[in-house]
Amino acid sequence: MKVAIVPGDGIGREVVPVAEGVLRLLHPDWDYYPVEVGYGRWERCGAAIGSEEMRALSEADAILFGAVTTPPDPDYRSVLLQIRHDLDLYANVRPVRGPGVDITIVRENTEGLYSGIEWNLPGSACTLRVVTERGSRRIARFAAGLVRGGRLTIGTKANVIKSDVLFRRCAIDEAEAAGVAWEEKYIDALCLDVLVHPARYGVIVTTNIFGDILSDAAGYLVGGLGMLPSANIGDKHAFFEPVHGSAPDIAGRGIANPVAAIRSAALLLAHSGYADEAAAVDAAVDAALVAGVRTPDLGGAASTVQVGEAVFGRIRERML
């Protein structure tokens, strides 16, 4: 198993080593190799990622990623968008789990307003929102495959946006073909209702930017962005990262919350066929939090490393 490790920038360099430590604890025999991507590389080379780095990522069985800081460059192309497009990581899966909350937000990951098709005009700037039938069907099919006994919620603005009419139709078709119950919600009302009545929801599928916003907002239910992992899945590649950014305001202070990165490592394990180990990692995180081992964003006083050590100890008790 080849795992590319990409700490990136800011707190990514602090939380990714903790998540990597979880993987090494359970699988010391895997081939872990670093890949430099982000602001530091941009400062040295003028580009945040190059062809060598993309090749290294494409050769990995899985990628563990931290966060990147956006350089002050008007021609900068988002590293994440480039990786998602080049590796065709079309399904962004963001689980939001905590007491009374078990929601999985499935976001189309390569189209929409993050299509990367943009241009400037005198006095204006344009971004093309791309929604295709192929892209809509495959993300809806993926989401329907995650439903276990509940229903699929389809989030759109089909009452206003024609491209969402297409997405809605494809999502309904795929849900019905899979024999999955479905409901539709307008995304603005859905954002509010998820926060007010989270127990009503299981799997939600939506377009790119809507899923980005909805999943970040849903972080409120479980303690913030420091708690949210994500998986970027394609037919040939898989990429796992915490939802949070590089947080330069707290970088280097040793207080960044590593839970999202650790849970991203658990998603990597589950995707790679190690469901029992993934469950053990999540249970170890839960046990550490219940015991009060928490970083300051959760009201605690533990450091990033101390949270990691608490989780490692509980994994050893459960698995080793």
Automatic annotation (TrEMBL):
What domain of life does the UniProt record list for this protein's source? Archaea
Q: Which Pfam families match?
A: Iso_dh
Question: PROSITE patterns this protein is in?
Answer: IDH_IMDH
> Does this entry carry the keyword Oxidoreductase?
yes
Q: Which residues form the Isopropylmalate dehydrogenase-like domain?
A: 2-311
Q: Which InterPro entries match?
A: IsoCit/isopropylmalate_DH_CS, IsoPropMal-DH-like_dom
Q: Which GO terms describe its molecular function?
A: isocitrate dehydrogenase (NAD+) activity; magnesium ion binding; NAD binding
Swiss-Prot/TrEMBL GO biological process terms: isocitrate metabolic process; tricarboxylic acid cycle
* Alphabetized UniProt keyword annotations: Oxidoreductase
Identify its protein family: Belongs to the isocitrate and isopropylmalate dehydrogenases family.
State the name under which the record lists this protein.
Isocitrate/isopropylmalate dehydrogenase
Source organism of this protein record: Methanofollis liminatans DSM 4140
